[in-house]
Amino acid sequence: MRRQLAIAAALAGVLGYGAAAQAADIKVLTTGAMKEVVLAVVPAYEKESGNKVIVSNDTAGAIAKRVEGGEGFDLCILTPAAIKDLTQKGKFAAGSAANVARVGVGVVVKAGAPSPDISTVEAFKKALLAAKSVAYIDPAAGGSSGIYVAGLLDKLGIAGEIKPKAKLKNGGYVADLVASGEAELGLHQISEILAVKGVHLVGPLPAEIQNYTTYAAAVGAQAQHAEAAQALLRRLTGPEAEPVLKERGMERPPA
Question: Hey, what CATH topology would domain 2-102+214-247 get?
Answer without folding.
Answer: D-Maltodextrin-Binding Protein; domain 2 (3.40.190)
